[in-house]
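Thread: Newbie trying to understand structure tokens

Hi all, I'm a second-year student working on a class project, and my supervisor (Dr. K.) asked me to get a predicted structure for one chain before our next meeting. I've only ever worked with sequences, so writing a 3D structure as a token string is new to me. If someone could post the tokens and maybe explain what I'm looking at, I'd be very grateful. Here's the chain:
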Amino acid sequence: MQFLYPYFLWALAAIAIPIIIHLFQFRRFKKVFFTNVRFLKEIKDETTNRNKLKNLLILLSRILAVVALVLAFAQPFIPKGDTLKSGKNQVSIFVDNSFSMTAMRNDVPLLDYGKEKARAVVKAYSEKDQFQILTHDFEGRHQRFLSQEDALSYIDEIVPTPNVQPIDRVINRQKQLLDMGSDNKISYIISDFQRTIMPVEALQDTSMEINLLPIQTHQLSNVSIDSVWFEGPIPFLNQNNRLLIKTTNNSNRNAEQVKISLSKDGQEKPVTVRDIEANTTVTDTVNISIANSGWHQGVVKVTDYPVTFDDEYFIAFNVPDTIKTLLINEGGISKYMDALFKGIQNLSVLNQNVNQLQYQQFPDYDLIILNDLRQISSGLSTELVQYLRNGGKVLMFPGQTADMNSYNSFLQSIQAGSLSSQNNSLREVYTINTEEFVFSDVYIRTASNLKLPKTQFSYDFLTSGASNMEKLLSYRDGSMYLGKFKVQDGQFYMCAAPLDTEVNDLVYNAEVFVPMVYKIAISTTKQKSLAYTITNHITVETANLRRTGDYTYKVKHGEEEFIPGQMPAGNHIILDFNDQVKKSGYYDLLLDDKLVNKLAFNYDRKESDMRIFEEKELKDIEASNPKVKVLGEVLQANMTAAITEKDQGIALWKWFVIVALCFLLVETLLIRFLKS
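---
Reply by user tm_fold:
Sure, no problem. This is what the structure looks like when written as tokens:
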């Protein structure tokens, strides 16, 4: 047994007071005279002995009452743990306010229980202690110490949030503030402890005291729409665009008759009604025909209860009128290339002579084709490099009399190898890469009778120094006929032979030529996002929307409007939304009050998996780390006593107060009922 205030033990000297009272009888005796006292002698002896016993018992009761009272003020306790906490406490309390805490227990949301426990923790400490109130929002105002009164006010303001932080980040956030202090550092984490946000290793190496308060209900079943995407890079007008929908059953029970529907531009259509086995993911496909170009909005829905935050997935996408191509020629317009673009819907081409180029218009085109150029000038090379780095696509057919030095200067600037020599031998393309996007899903099977191009003149290509090269068509000896190179956000396609029909019969092989040019035109290094996930730090890259002069981007959602942060990145602008997006749905991106983009935002799916660490599993973590304490439901019933016992051991002062009162009662009874 130890004492919280041992200096109170000096008050044990007060036991001298009842002893002095006993030794000096302050009661005055009255003499009574009898005519004959011989008969009283025996009675006198008996009464004196009884008085001595009574006085000794009263003295003992008083001494023990004083001793018990002094010990109560010294606050004795039986220590638990390694050290006793004394002095000022710095307490960090994390309240899980994610969507999983909106689950009900006894018709009350778990978040309300969590806030109640947070208040109890604050009240269990004294007014001189300091507090931090932390939530998934990670707001800047929460990263400072509060008084007890302010901490209680902050707890009242906590509401559900779409943001989700893993527990290890929460602990690091707590340590950042607690390490600034020098007194007792105590962490409380109030959560349902979902497995998806709680890596166990985050609690195994901590040197800070961490107290876990599980607020849980029975594990719920949940079906979620996880993601939605188009099969192709971009959707096209008046075509069946395949939209893929990924749905997950996040429970140990089969989900029956799950209804999935799609609402596009306000019109809803059913997708499927199906059973989904426990803990499995399924992908459904729906064909969408789009009659109008421009921006379109859609939302995929699933019927599910009681967890509903992940039952909708919003998407927004733009359907272009045409894919614009710039064809740069020097020897004249290629009638075959011109015919190809006229024969493919949604593709348009503009022919320009190499000496009449307007470089500032390059970003307006989805594809630039270089046909039969004798040389690549330094000016053209610089603009093409910038165009590629900003996400453009370039297809090059070298001229038969090409200046190899100028070509190699350009190729080396984008790390795409170099031309080594001319090859005048007859060569035949032998292999086709059907794994790459350009030729994937083009042929049902690559039969032996598929006619591939032949060349009577080509360039030998050196791949040394080439980065991210991928062969699409190869000669019989394995050398490259058509290759693809990734240049930052762009794609560069290089053919080893000119397009001239006298040396290359590619244009006569329509089953290769047409899909090759078409799919190069619609290919992309980064498929445009149909939706974004709501987090604390959202960034969106604009598409060629940077310009000179003063301009302002705004984001509008209903009546709400805000200006995002803007950071230049090449020909793009990176918009930093920070934590200003709180609700799922559609947001308009405005440039000088004109619509330039529609954005769809969805809640994070991290918490769709409702599996939790149950209290007994948390106890196993506690057993492996003495710094981790679990305050289960039994201890949460009396939070003040649980925290006091945790920090100060088993307090005994109340028992000593009761003992002191008992001895005072004994003294009263002795005085009143024990006759002298």
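A couple of things are worth pointing out once you decode it. The longest helix spans residues 41-74. The two ends are 40 Å apart (CA to CA). Feel free to ask follow-ups in this thread.
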